[in-house]
Amino acid sequence: MADGSAGSVLRAVLELGPAPRSAIARHASISPATLTWQSRALLAAGLLVELPETTASAGLGRPYSPLALNAAGNVVMGVHIAAEHVTVAVVDIAGTVLRSSRFPHPGTGPEGILDLAAAQVCRVRDECTERIVGLGVATGGWVDTETGTVVHHSFLGWRDVPVRDRLAAATGLPTALDNHTRALMYAEQLYGTIRAVPSSIMLFVGNVIDVAFAIHGRVHYGPRSAAGSLARWLGGTRTGPIAPAELEGLADHALLRAARDRSLGDFGDFPDLLDRAADPAVQELFRARAVTLGGVLAALIDLLDPAAVVISDRAYTRVPGVRQAYLDTVGDQAAAGIEPDRLIAGSTFQGRVLETAAAAVALHRLFDRPLAAIAV
């Protein structure tokens, strides 16, 4: 409970920016005495700094010394394991991506991919001058956060891979693993559009498609950390593959393959497909996917009645008509009274989704229980 109060203080400073102790106590809903105790602990831990004395405005009022995040002195590292590459990033505790590198990974199974990730983390770790307070690892599919295991990743073909322990042993950093969609939900709660939102849905659309949802700010996992899969909803069966044909047809790699099969162009990779989306035929591929997934979102909205929905889809704003296809479909199919343009937003982190998702795995732990996180 004490470390939970420290987390409330740290999150309040993140949300307010440099602020007097009285404002932080009000924002965190804690007593002045608790604020004094916890702020001392956070200052001693190097997570907060005390700024020079100032006054409220124009030299009026009682002087005070604002508290601020020590973003310059504290960073996390993030590893995102995607279908075809590994991204390694350094992100400060204010959520700014400082450094990022992407590496095509070998198609040799989890051992080769994790060896590549560990080597790159160690290289960046040794070059880093800031304090590294944790390593976050994010990937798609079924991820058991408690055991640190990728239970099943359909695209990579992984089953029961102990990712967390392997990377922790190889890098010497306190390491946490989570599903990237849940991690993006945490990032939006900390730095994005759904701070203090009571309930929310996150839809991630990439080579893996899944969802996360949060109630009263708590992201739901389920007893097996299995919440969020859309495979069964989109046509999967108990005996069929985790990624059935209908779901495969909506993933990024499938849209790229469909564009090639239809001779719409000589596309090198998915970003190339996005860059050439001025072609109406290419646009239609993306809009058709948005219509299908918009129907799924409409059903989820009816089921959960969230206060906010965030869509992380690289085509959401880059491809003409895609955002509107999502909004129109949700408006047509969800319950009466839905205002899609007020309910739904694109990701705050377009262009840095993978880095932010990976870092958020560690940042969430830091802002939830900061003193425990840095004591590891």
UniProtKB/TrEMBL annotation:
Keywords: Kinase, Transferase. SUPFAM superfamilies: Actin-like ATPase domain (SSF53067), Winged helix' DNA-binding domain (SSF46785). It comes from the Bacteria. Pfam families: ROK. One of its GO terms (molecular function) is kinase activity. InterPro entries: ATPase_NBD (IPR043129), ROK (IPR000600), WH-like_DNA-bd_sf (IPR036388), WH_DNA-bd_sf (IPR036390). Belongs to the ROK (NagC/XylR) family. This is Sugar kinase. It comes from Nocardia jinanensis.
